[in-house]
Specification:
The protein is α+β, with helices and mostly antiparallel strands. It has two domains: 39 residues; 142 residues, Immunoglobulin-like (Sandwich), CATH 2.60.40.10. The chain contains two helices and seven strands; from the N terminus they run ααβββββββ. A hairpin with a 2-residue loop joins strand 1 and strand 2. The radius of gyration is 25 Å and the shape is elongated.
Length: 205
């Protein structure tokens, strides 16, 4: 219900004692605090600091055929409205750490992804794709990621199909570095990321 400030202001004008006015102010501030807190909660943020990240995804399943990939996430933990899910697909890099090799899919509220990926690079060599996933809400850091495979050793997936090209370098997602080196950032871990500055030129003497 929307905050009816006019009702409270009218009650203050008609108050015949300081005690009545104090009660009116108390009710107004309590109602305002409740509604602001509810708004922050629904938005997945808080006025200071960061919200606790969601619990990690329990498991992810990946199947692929003829270049089409289907990913399904299992996440049975308690969640709040506004949660978003991310899937990272890495070409030939099980560490997900090499800049530009990991491509981020923002699933929004969905826990299922259908997409197409090339089975071979430009030279005709099979691409081993590696997958991980994590949830995040707008005011939190990303949750701990979950690999397709074991916790420390992701399972390679050869997607097959006739598509043959070398993927362009990824530029990441959210407020992560624009070189694609932060593969588990999702929306980001910082509120604002400044634009990259000009590279310094070394002078010789």
């Amino acid at each position: 219900m929307a905050l009816d400030t006019n009702r409270f202001l009218n009650s203050l004008r008609s108050a015949v004692s300081w005690e009545e006015a104090r009660r009116g102010v108390h009710l107004l501030l309590s109602d305002l605090t409740d509604q602001i807190s509810n708004g922050f909660k629904q938005a997945g943020i808080q006025p200071t600091g960061k919200v606790q990240p969601p619990a990690p995804i329990e498991s992810m399943n990946v199947v692929a055929n003829n270049g089409t990939v289907h990913v399904v996430l299992t996440h049975n933990a308690p969640v709040s409205k506004g949660i978003r899910y991310f899937v990272a697909a890495s070409a030939n890099d099980p560490s997900f750490g090499q800049p530009g090799t990991t491509h981020i899919f923002d699933l929004g509220a969905s826990r299922s992804l259908f997409t197409s990926l090339p089975g071979k690079d430009g030279s005709g060599t099979n691409i081993n794709w590696y997958f991980k996933s994590f949830p995040q809400v707008p005011g939190s850091d990303p949750a701990e990621h979950t690999n397709f495979g074991t916790k420390y050793v992701p399972t390679p997936v050869v997607v097959g199909g006739s598509a043959q090209f070398t993927p362009l370098p990824s530029t990441g997602s959210g407020t992560a570095k624009p070189d694609g080196s932060q593969s588990s950032a999702g929306l980001g871990t910082v509120l604002q990321r400044p634009a990259p500055g000009p590279k310094r030129q070394l002078t010789t003497v």
